[in-house]
Amino acid sequence: MSAETPDETTETINTTAPVPWGWAALGLIVVLGLAATTRFLESWVPAIAEGSSFAGFAKAIEYPVYAILLGLLGNLVLSLLGLRDRLAPAFKTEFFIKTGLVLLGSTVLFDVIVQAAGPAVLQALFLVTSVFLFAWWIGGRLGLDDRLRALLASSVSICGVSAAIAAAGAVQARKEQLAYTASLVILFAVPSIFLLPWLVEVLGLNTAQAGAWIGGNIDTTAAVAASGAIVGEEALQIASIVKSTQNVLMGVVAVALTAYFAFKVAPAGETGANRPGLRTLWDRFPKFVLGFLLASVVATLWANGTGDDGQAGLDTAKALRDWFLIAAFTSIGLEFKLSSLREAGWRPIGVFAAATAFNLIVGLLLAVLLFRDFVF
């Protein structure tokens, strides 16, 4: 199945349009207001639920859930008021999450990853490769467009929305395809926050195996943290290391997809010498991935140079990261259109569900095998 040509794509994620700044400023106020409300709910709900039967559930809910729900609620209200489309220029999911991902790199120190480097790297390499290829294959069997296949395969195999954004930039996907993929990520990730800790109990996994399984399967870093925290602090540490290791592979996948779509899936009429060159490869490569890696290296060097763990700097970076990611998740809710789900039909949902099930099974086997003797 060949991908759509640029002539057939009405709007890619790189397309820009004149911005009505007055409405954009008002839209930004909406985003910031919802983000602030998310921060408030994140601390207020557990506080009022303390001592009740709802306490455990309230503590397990992380900011992505509040942000997305508030974004969807804001979407509904603004749509009813006829203001949503006017404010839409401020709903910059791509900008917010790319900035958040660069800041995420500054909180992932390489020496922390090295502590579990062997099993984490092996699991990440095998899991990302196998799940990506499985999702790509089944998407082809069901006749999905190559660009949507790339987004679905990247998101389910690596790290959800952020991987989908990296893939979207690499393959020049349409905004509608990115919004649809992000919706599926959220749809599957939120229940996984609570489902996997329960399955950990049922299967009797040890702490390291539980963390590795959670980190290798749930599609967003925030949801991984929420689910790992339910199991325990040590499980959270392993889950974060495994997910961070997979995040690093996002750049590798982005390069591979950029090369594939630039040279293999060339636009109609561009054959032989007319195919895109190395310049096209560089132009399509999502540069923020380099920012992620650079931020991680700088943070590691800085922490080592100060003679301590650099916790103060890490806390500042984490706070900024969380604000940008909250804005991104809020914008996802604000940008969501039910029509995109109806238009895509059941096939992308089937691909994502099948790939998620495959990921759970393979990830479980790898976690049990690679982390069976892990000692903290």
Task: Describe the structure concisely.
The protein has 376 residues and is mainly alpha-helical.
Layout of secondary structure:
Elements: H1 21-49, H2 55-60, H3 63-81, H4 84-87, H5 93-105, H6 110-114, H7 117-141, H8 146-159, H9 161-171, H10 175-203, H11 207-217, H12 221-231, H13 233-264, H14 278-284, H15 288-306, H16 311-335, H17 338-344, H18 347-370
Helix pairs in contact: 1-3, 1-16, 3-16, 5-15, 5-16, 7-8, 7-13, 7-18, 8-9, 8-10, 8-13, 8-18, 9-10, 9-13, 10-12, 11-12, 11-13, 11-18, 12-13, 13-14
Task: Give a description of the structure.
This protein has helices spanning 21-49, 55-60, 63-81, 84-87, 93-105, 110-114, 117-141, 146-159, 161-171, 175-203, 207-217, 221-231, 233-264, 278-284, 288-306, 311-335, 338-344, 347-370. It is mainly α. It has one domain (93-370). It has 18 helices and no strands.
Task: Pick out its properties.
376 residues; mainly alpha; 18 helices; disordered N terminus
The SS-based structural class is mainly alpha
Helical segment count: 18
What is the overall pLDDT average?
76
Count of domain modules: 1
Which radius of gyration do the C-alpha atoms yield? 20 Å
Shape: globular
Largest sheet: none
Number of strands: 0
Low-confidence stretches: 1-18, 268-273
| Share of helical residues | over 70%
